[in-house]
Specification:
The complex is a heterotrimer. By secondary structure, chain B is mainly α. Chain B has eleven helices and two strands, in the order ααααββααααααα. The longest helix of chain C is centred in the C-terminal third of the chain and has 27 residues. Chain C is globular, with a radius of gyration of 20 Å. In chain C, about 55% of the residues are buried. The chains are: A alpha/beta, B mainly alpha, C mainly alpha. Chains in contact: A-B, A-C, B-C.
Chain lengths: ~400, ~290, ~325
């Protein structure tokens, strides 16, 4: 055989084999990833009625700043692109499309709100872009068979409400239950979860009152609830209205066993304005440490958090629990990206997110971990009941975990 | 009966909130013939100024007065710098300017003070008073009292002082007012300043109850707008009447009309307002404007 | 002796206007192939707003009846479409005439009692309507229809007849076609007797009545027609976004529409397009200027715009062409 010598053939074969194996081990990138950056997208309500929650997006951004300063994740820095959607679903659709189709982000992270996430739910799954760790407690985000690209993060509202229901049934003699809830999906989700937790005893509910987010005051609802003769009060309100409700109930002399939802658990943002006396005896379920609570304030984990706040988020409010939420959810994201290593495709990131194995994070309550599996898209399912003693939240009982992931 | 009374009391307390801002709206209307949609946000911003002063250690009443003064000056400045250039523009263009102001104040407040709610102190005693089985909050009583006081002051000002008369003249007929020597430009600025001050009082009375945050006045403004028009935009007494009526009707509708409950009580209030307007198109106590053709 | 019409480069302004319109139309047809799907989506939404603004302009700009609640018709149209698609599987294009008819009737019914109200009082009544809509949409007994707070999801329309374009482009052209139809109809309306009657009523009601214009009929009918336009826009928005929820239709929608017609130019057909471009794209511009307080920047834009162009963009253009080209007349 003339022309091509055996040596040449051998050389090319070896060269091809080498190139091939290099390709197999080389980094694989999805959209938005380069050797130095990973682009992550987000929509948050920085304006409009839910603007109080925009803080979480800012905290997340500040956490990523710190990670970047420390060298990034496997040598890549995070570029966090966050747009305002004003809590308006059509706007969320527009901003999400912008992030995916124009900014070419790798994934969407910590998008906030139930109607807003609902609006992009189908789109994200059709486009096969991860909609990771959505910042809402609605129970519908954990459906891996139908929506494999969407995952929640925090314990669902239904899980929490069921914990309250079961506690009430087990520990209160002759309970008569009154409910105050915000008239939107968040409020209704809680109420439905609570009723599910009561099982066939929903007749124990003697009064239900709702309110709208743009209502100035809810005093008249509280009066009606007291009048129902209830001795148990399920308070499903956001911080401003929670403070109003707690204060008003105390003012008119109504002292039921009161459950306050986790959304409004903050000592400084809710209980202090409402009045510490008025708040004594409140029961809630938590999964994050309250950084203003005396039992956690001086621990090394909280001190580390404070140092981060002071350096990277100096405008942030040290007493706002949203900053603990943002810190912890960002840590979860960083963990997932670390596990993905150099294989930063959307598929692999989603796969890693669905394989978190008992991750402990510094600001989660002891005994509560982040854990997912291919069929378990509920990262945090455990909470612990706590009672406010006038100064701090005291945990009691065991850590309670959801029995089965509900849809 | 107890529930009825307690709901009436709650309704009056809520109504007092609406009435106080409604007075600011009437004030600005009486002096400029415009309804300033940004009045609520300006009141909220004034309250934040007060909060900043109190947080820095300044005693309540000094901060209160200082806020009134600052708000007054702010109102005058806004009129001279922002409203003056568009004075002669079509009415709707002015409305857009008001909307612009609204959005600016709201956004600035959120940026400077964040969205976490802040408690605001009340000058009235804390502990509730019980009359029979009905509980009254001293702050709500005090706030209602302050509202009525402002009402009296405004009423007296516009009715019995020459300055008040000059302001009304400047608003209703600027050309003729100039001819009799009224300095219309300053009357308008004064009107804005006074309205801003009234708004500041409203904000400081309202904040202890509903807590201070940038979106505090959003819902209140709509009710105040309804109250002012329901009562007749030219009548301060009408605005207060409107505020109390709306508050009480809403509370009672939410309690006693079963299929409505709290879900549709806003609907009930609005139906009543619009229904009344259809019977009396210029509001309960408003004057019909008669103009020559 | 009348002067000859001024000519620029050999063509009269009337000719130039035709050239301009044709140019814009050609551009509109070509754009979706030049820009990304995301931009096409944005342009589609802009067209939807243009229809809504034309509706509001008919009522407020041409007829002088102020409405602070046009978001209500937007919501009514959107939900009519969503419910028909979701409950009865009706194709999206057939829902449009139904949404139009529903809004026409309800708008007219609202317009009749509104005859008694003027100025601020009418504004309040329309505001009341807009406030009530989200509450009604969330009302528990209506939930099986409206989907309550969860809203209703709609499937994205498929491209028909095997055309070689994608879904976003198809939606764009569909909306563009509807927009053209609505605008031509509106333009005809304004040019003719009806338009003159509306403007006469706005400028001087008593004089108009004396001259034989049936004020009551015109005023309530224009309410209905205005609602029809904005309702069709709402219906289209439901199809383009594929999701409706009560939270999407709060008071901000009504305020945005009002901002749109004033910024675009009252009593102007082209104003609807300028206004739509403003409300669709300027918030993004404001966000790029200031991440921290974007709405403050938006507010500053609004105020500055009103300083410089109190009659809106269309009004400004008219003024410019009058001053520099000596032209007069409508748009």
């Amino acid at each position: 055989m003339t022309g091509i010598s055996k040596t040449t053939v051998r050389f090319f074969t070896v060269a091809c084999a080498a190139l091939f194996s290099m390709a197999a081990f080389a980094a694989q990138y999805g959209p938005g990833v380069t050797d130095d950056t990973i682009k992550i997208g987000n929509t948050s309500p920085y304006s409009g009625p839910a603007s109080a929650y925009g803080v979480i997006g800012k905290a997340v951004s500040a956490y990523f700043d710190m990670i970047n300063d420390q060298g990034g994740i496997n040598g890549r820095k995070i570029e966090f692109i966050s747009y305002d959607d004003g809590y308006s679903p059509p706007k969320t659709v527009e901003q999400a499309r912008r992030l995916v189709e124009q900014d070419h982000v790798l994934l969407l992270f910590e998008t906030l709100g139930t109607p807003t996430n609902s609006a992009i739910h189908k789109y994200m799954n059709a486009k096969k872009v991860p909609q990771l760790f959505v910042a809402t407690g609605a129970s519908k985000w954990g459906q891996p068979e139908k929506y494999p690209w969407t995952m929640g993060w925090q314990p669902s509202y239904k899980t929490e409400a069921q914990i309250y229901a079961k506690y009430a049934l087990a520990n209160i003699k002759d309970p008569k239950i009154a409910i105050l809830y915000q008239n939107d999906d968040y409020g209704k989700d809680y109420v439905n979860g609570f009723k599910e937790g009561l099982g066939d005893k929903t007749n124990l509910i003697v009064a239900e009152e709702s309110y709208e987010v743009n209502e100035p005051t809810i005093a008249s609802q509280i009066v009606n609830l007291k009048n129902s003769g209830a001795n148990v009060f399920l308070n499903v309100t956001t911080p401003k209205f929670a403070a109003q409700a707690i204060k008003k109930a105390y003012e008119i002399g109504w002292k039921p066993t009161q459950f306050i939802n986790n959304v409004s658990i903050s000592t400084s943002a809710v209980l202090e304005p409402a009045g510490l006396d008025a708040s004594t005896g409140l029961i809630s379920a938590g999964y994050l440490k309250d950084q203003t609570d005396p039992q956690w304030k001086n621990t090394p984990e909280v001190k580390e958090w404070e140092a981060w706040m002071k350096k990277y988020f100096p405008d942030g409010n040290l007493a706002d629990g949203s900053n603990v939420y943002g810190y912890t959810i960002a840590q979860t994201m960083v963990h997932v990206l670390k596990m993905a290593g150099d294989n930063l495709t959307r598929e692999n990131v989603m796969k890693q997110a669905a394989n978190i194995d008992n991750l402990e994070l510094p600001l989660l309550l002891p005994g509560i971990k982040v854990d997912t599996g291919p069929k378990d898209y509920y990262p945090i399912e455990c909470m612990q009941l706590q009672r406010f003693d006038g100064q701090k939240w005291s945990r009691f009982g065991d850590v309670v975990c959801a029995e089965t992931p509900d849809t | 009966m107890d529930v009825f009374l307690q709901q009436v009391v709650s309704g009056l307390a809520a109504g007092g909130i609406y009435a106080s801002l409604a007075l600011a709206l009437v004030m600005i209307y009486q002096s400029t013939e415009h309804i300033n949609l940004a009045q609520g946000e300006m009141a909220m911003f004034s309250t934040y100024i007060a909060w900043t002063l109190i947080d820095a250690g300044i005693p309540y009443w000094i901060a209160f007065v200082a806020t009134l003064v600052i708000s007054f000056i702010g109102g005058v400045l806004i009129e001279r710098l922002i409203i003056r250039p568009v004075e002669n523009a079509p009415v709707l263009s002015l409305v857009i300017v008001f909307i612009g102001l609204l959005v600016i104040f709201n956004s600035l407040a959120g940026w400077i003070f964040t969205y976490t709610i802040k408690p605001f102190p009340s000058p009235f005693p804390e502990s509730p008073i019980s009359v029979g089985n009905v509980v009254l909050s001293p702050h709500s009583l005090g706030a209602i009292g302050v509202t009525l006081l402002i009402l009296l002051l405004l009423f007296g000002f516009f009715r019995y002082t020459s300055l008040g008369l000059a302001m009304r003249a400047a608003a209703q007929n600027p050309v003729s007012a100039r001819l009799v020597g009224i300095r219309v430009a300053w009357m308008l600025a004064l009107g804005w300043g006074l309205a801003a001050a009234v708004g500041a009082v409203a904000g400081m009375m309202v904040a202890p109850v509903i807590f201070l945050d940038p979106n505090m006045m959003g819902g209140v403004l709509i009710y105040a707008f309804a109250a002012a028009l329901f009562g007749g935009i030219t009548s301060p007494g009408g605005a207060v009447f409107g505020g109390f009526t709306i508050g009480v009707v809403e509370a009672l509708a939410g309690t006693y009309v079963p299929f409505i409950g709290s879900e549709l009580k806003l609907l009930v209030a609005l139906v009543i307002i619009v229904g009344t307007l259809l019977i009396k198109p210029t509001g309960v106590f408003g004057k019909a404007v008669v103009s020559r053709v | 002796m009348t002067a000859a019409a001024p000519r620029v480069a050999g063509l009269t302004t009337r000719h130039w206007r035709v050239v301009l319109v044709v140019g814009v139309l050609v551009l509109a047809c070509v754009l979706p192939f030049l820009v990304s799907n995301y931009r096409t989506f944005q342009l589609t939404m802009m067209l939807v707003y243009a229809i809504a603004l034309l509706g509001l302009n008919l009522l407020t700009g041409y007829n002088g009846q102020i409405s602070l609640g046009h978001g209500a018709w937007f919501a009514l149209g959107a939900y009519t479409t969503a419910i028909m698609i979701d409950q009865w599987g009706i194709p999206y294009y057939w829902t449009l005439p139904v949404a139009a008819a529903v809004c026409l009737v309800v708008g007219f019914l609202f317009g009749v009692p509104a005859l008694r109200l003027r100025g601020h009082y009418l504004a309040l009544a329309t505001l009341a309507l807009a406030l009530v809509i989200p509450q009604l949409l969330k009302y528990q007994p209506l939930q099986p229809f409206t989907g309550g707070v969860q809203g209703i999801l709609i499937l994205k329309p498929e491209v028909p007849w095997g055309l070689p374009i994608n879904q976003d482009q198809w939606l764009y052209f569909f909306v563009l076609a509807i927009t053209l139809v609505m605008f031509v109809l509106g333009w005809n309306l304004i040019r003719g007797r009806v338009g003159r009657a509306l403007v006469a009523i706005r400028d001087h009601e008593v004089a108009a009545e004396t001259m034989g214009v049936n004020n009551a009929l015109y005023k309530s009918t224009v309410f209905g027609v205005s609602a029809l336009y904005t309702g069709v826009a709402g219906a289209l928005s439901a199809v383009v976004v594929q999701f409706v929820a009560p939270d999407s239709y709060n008071i901000l929608v009504s305020i945005t529409l009002l901002v749109g017609i004033v910024v675009g130019g009252l009593a102007s057909i082209s104003g609807a397009i300028f206004g739509a471009a403003f409300i669709q794209f300027i918030p993004q511009v404001a966000e790029s200027v200031s991440k921290a307080a974007p709405w403050a920047i938006y507010g500053v834009f609004l105020i500055l715009l009103m300083f410089v162009m109190p009659t809106g963009i269309a009004g400004f253009i008219k003024w410019v062409s009058y001053r520099f080209l000596g032209t007069r007349g409508g748009d």
